[in-house]
Amino acid sequence: MLRIKGNTKVTVEEHATPSEPSKPVNMCLWRLMIVAGTLIYGSYTILVHLCEEDGKLPFSSASLILNIEIIKFFISVVLYIPEVKENGFTMPSIWFSLPFAVPAILYCFNNNISVYMQLQMDPASYQVLGNLKILSTAFLYRAIIKRPITGIQWVSLTLLAIAGISNSYGGLQAKGDINSAGVIHVTFIGLMMMCTYCFISGLSGVYTEYILKRQYQTSLHLQNILLYSFGILLNGGVWIFQASEAESFNLFRGYSVYTWIVVITQAFSGLIMSAIMKHANNIVRLFLISSAMMVATALSMLIFGLELNTYFCAAFGLVIIALVLYHQ
Question: Which of 23, 122, 238, 274 could anchor a disulfide with 62, C-beta 3.0 to 4.6 Å?
Fold first, then answer.
């Protein structure tokens, strides 16, 4: 929970671990991070669709995620160097490092599947259905971090589920060119992928928050370095497999200007998300993700000429109501 202290600082009130201290974060920087994170998250699905060639992605999903992980790793190293100069460096033990492999595995799977999901639905539906991760996060928050769910939040979660059903039903009814980003559509395969994606997203988000806060005094940059190191190893392995299947070991095969924009923006998005989970919580992260729904819908209408149907509008309205209720 965020709490304003004075006019320039924001502090974090403990939810995950009773002994966790509060840490001040510059208020202006924090607001900038939230706004930037919302815009980046909302534009992700738009940019991936702009990368498509004849309804297919010309690049390997693992190469995309691998390059994102590499950039995040080096940015974290650069940010960690001043701390090392000031406080010195102690090599983390294997037992301290291993827990970061768990979210790295989950993120490796989810980040790759999220790329291919773009071919199964339009950008706006991707963002609306992505709000279903609030369901999985809420249940896992209760199970793992023991955060209670209030009565009004249960109502909110029910509305969210109805919104997902509404948008899914409307998307499955789509006719015509369902490969167009300008048509509201969702395939059955895409719906199954989204359900899997939302559950794993909730699990990875809650677990990542848990390990980041378990050693709260440990530098976030060091924790990120450990997380991204495992991410590089895992996605590197997936890329080698995909490259051998495609008989091309060019890491940048099929890249365009839009692909590089995805790589750079998603690298910063990952860093912003880790800061949110370290100094706030997954509820703030989900608020950002939910707000990105409006960004994606507006950009879809502007760039792809998206025409909204009744089911989507109903789902959109229900998500807004659910968000207001959940965050009261």
Answer: 238
- Tokens found for residue 261: 């924009």
Half-sphere exposure of 15 (CA within 13 A, CB side): 23
Indicate the SS3 state at residue 326: helix
For the whole model, what pTM was predicted? 0.84
Q: Which of 323, 328, 319 is nearest to 127 (CA)?
A: 319
What is the pLDDT confidence band of residue 293, given thresholds at 50, 70 and 90?
Answer: confident
> Are 140 and 206 spatial neighbours (Cβ–Cβ below 8 Å)?
yes
Structure tokens at 126: 């991707």
The three-state secondary structure class of 26 is strand
Q: How does 162-197 read in b/e, with b if 16+ C-beta sit within 10 Å?
A: ebbebbbebbeebeeebebbbbbbbbeebbebbeeb
Over its C-alpha atoms, the chain yields an Rg (Å, rounded) of 20
Alpha helix (H) residue ranges in 52-187: 61-87, 94-97, 101-117, 123-130, 133-144, 151-172
What pLDDT band is residue 12 in, cutting at 50, 70 and 90? Answer: very low
- Residue 6: pLDDT band (50, 70, 90) is very low
Distance between CA atoms of residues 278 and 280, nearest Å: 6
| Both structure tokens of 222 | 């060091």
